[in-house]
């Protein structure tokens, strides 16, 4: 079971289902078990001092892992976030976009697990790590 | 070492340091090891379908635990989110505020740990659980 | 859907399926959404210095949450640990048993979530917190 | 700040401080930000059915991350496990050792964070993922 959508189809699908965040999250690359997603940092993502907020990093990790999962199970399917763990390790660089490198570690019949590493563009050390778990309801037909 | 701020002082402090979310997070009750915080749900917190988004629940858990920690260590101190784990268990009720009940499990010299249970107002079963960890930098004087 | 086993039946069942740890984990109390389980601390659970090891605390949290879940879904059913998060907050008291207070936060068709607080007997502050997630395979008949 | 011990010194140190698990955990390779550690699976690590138990996988992740951290901060230093999250994704192969690939994501003055992927020897898909957090007490001199 390979990719059910390519990067362009996936981007179009995300824009349709999450119109309120159009332009914030960009699919930079997509492979069978990996996706690279960018958070185009805007004022609303920032804390005082110019650093990206925790909820924005959570949103990026969740969006990347959700997109990775949907790219594999197809847009008719459902995936619901059931668990998350994150480590916040460094302050993101002020004024830089964030890049999430997301690996699909498991895609089972009812559960998907992704591991995500988040970097500030231009900074070598990672700013955060996340793992996200999704429940895939058994009845996949809409 | 008891509370360094009461509920009113804490609310005022949060409004000063996070002016961009003023009116979103309300301190409903504050004790030495417990805080009750409300997310006043607005359109920007919602996913299509009317349910509160994951990042909004993360923000509520983080805000409650941060406020609990600051209420104890005082507003001159610093606390930086270093870790988080969440379980998303049920869909929040559409159109309802969320209430976070946050317990301070540990307040050490360099680490604080909080446990948070999130409910939709009027719904008995919890919608999410979180634990948040904060690093408290050694030099507390500003 | 209430308890499928009482405390005595549950203890007997655990002894049958985990004979290698017989006498280590005791069911102290059982309610519909709560279980109290004791780790009878033995030499093999200790680190140098006399404190209980991390893996032993993990085993206690897992055993308590597994037992809670099985007490509800019945011994013919299956439950597989899929996720865990723990915070280790204090050194356990040397020479004391550990008590886990485990709450069943969710029991869905395919997922169960428990929250666990671990104390050293005779010590008021908790030594660790855990959440455990179980997948319940769809076909429950053996 | 590079490695304070090489693989042989690290192995010798672990044997000294954890004599009760001598021969269970082997350092297979060590680099500045990565360690490969083997769990030599024995009967005591197994669940009925022949699969490696959850607590044994926790112990492997903890040992790998602890060893990685100590290799960098030196054997006079202290590191205490403060947090852990794990995803259990597949049943380990029966009768196979486990290999943990552990990456040091952060080594700060007071906190270290490692990410660990666990494989059964001879199996391509990972059986578990873990992240471990350590507190490094400020006074490093013994």
Automatic annotation (TrEMBL), chains A, B, C, D:
<dbReference type="InterPro" id="IPR006683">
    <property type="entry name" value="Thioestr_dom"/>
</dbReference>
<dbReference type="InterPro" id="IPR029069">
    <property type="entry name" value="HotDog_dom_sf"/>
</dbReference>
<protein>
    <submittedName>
        <fullName>Hotdog fold thioesterase</fullName>
    </submittedName>
</protein>
<feature type="domain" description="Thioesterase">
    <location>
        <begin position="49"/>
        <end position="122"/>
    </location>
</feature>
<dbReference type="Pfam" id="PF03061">
    <property type="entry name" value="4HBT"/>
</dbReference>
<dbReference type="GO" id="GO:0016289">
    <property type="term" value="F:acyl-CoA hydrolase activity"/>
</dbReference>
<dbReference type="InterPro" id="IPR003736">
    <property type="entry name" value="PAAI_dom"/>
</dbReference>
<keyword id="KW-0378">Hydrolase</keyword>
